Amino acid sequence: MEKGKGVMGSRKWAVEFTDNSSTPSTRDIPDPPGFTRVPHDQDDSTLSRQKKDAEANWKSQKAWEVAQAPFKNLMMMGFMMWMAGSTVHLFSIGITFSALWQPLSALQGVGKVFAPYKDSKVDLLAPKLLFIALNLGGMLLGVWKLNALGLLPTHASDWVSSLPPAREVEYSGGGIALH
Q1: CA 127, CA 117: separation in Å to the nearest integer?
Q2: Mean pLDDT of all residues in 122-151
Q3: Is residue 128 within 8 Å of 115, Cβ to Cβ?
């Protein structure tokens, strides 16, 4: 045998790349995940409808991901508040006001957050409600921490200065001296 002139049939390892099958169902190798064969006779309107449906499905999934994002922030903020302790000092107050400010600013921008996912085929009501509920939970966590630090006026003694003085019910005067 001459050098470089091997016969294809005599090789031990050889792969034939020609596909002699006429339909995809007769092939031995399955298509990779995510790959779909499109028949040539399929019209453009069906393709555009499928593309719009896939885009609406993607927007819906992304909207749910955005709606669930405050949960991660809620867990992180709770851990930071726990690490800050229950004494009133600069770090614990800063963390507490951050826990109040972040959900408040997120609630003000709900429309902007979900604007990229707005579509006639995508229902954004449930993701928006979840987003609002999780941010309200974050604000409640901040209010709880304010109460734990003793910075909320929740007792009667916190309001004593605004109460009128008590009315005197009983008077006592000088006594009689007995000799």
Answers
A1: 11
A2: 93
A3: no
Does residue 41 register a pLDDT over 70?
A: no
pLDDT score recorded for residue 136: 95
Residue 174 has pLDDT above 80, yes or no: no
DSSP H helices in the chain: 44-84, 90-108, 110-114, 125-149
Predicted structure pTM score: 0.62
What gap in Å lies between CA 168 and CA 27, rounded to an integer? Answer: 101
Cβ 136 vs Cβ 103: under 8 Å:
yes
Q: Which residue has the tokens 């749910």?
A: 64
Tokens 């930071």 belong to which residue?
Answer: 80
b/e 125-142 (16+ beta carbons within 10 angstroms → b): eebbebbbebbeebbebb
- Using DSSP, state whether 175 is helix, strand or coil: coil
Please give the pLDDT value at position 130: 95
Indicate the helix (H) or strand (E) that contains 31.
Answer: none
Q: What single letter denotes the amino acid at residue 21?
A: S
> Which pLDDT belongs to residue 64?
93
Cα four-point dihedral sign 70, 55, 37, 15: negative
DSSP string, 75-126: HHHHHHHHHH-SS-SHHHHHHHHHHHHHHHHHHHTHHHHHGGG--TT---HH
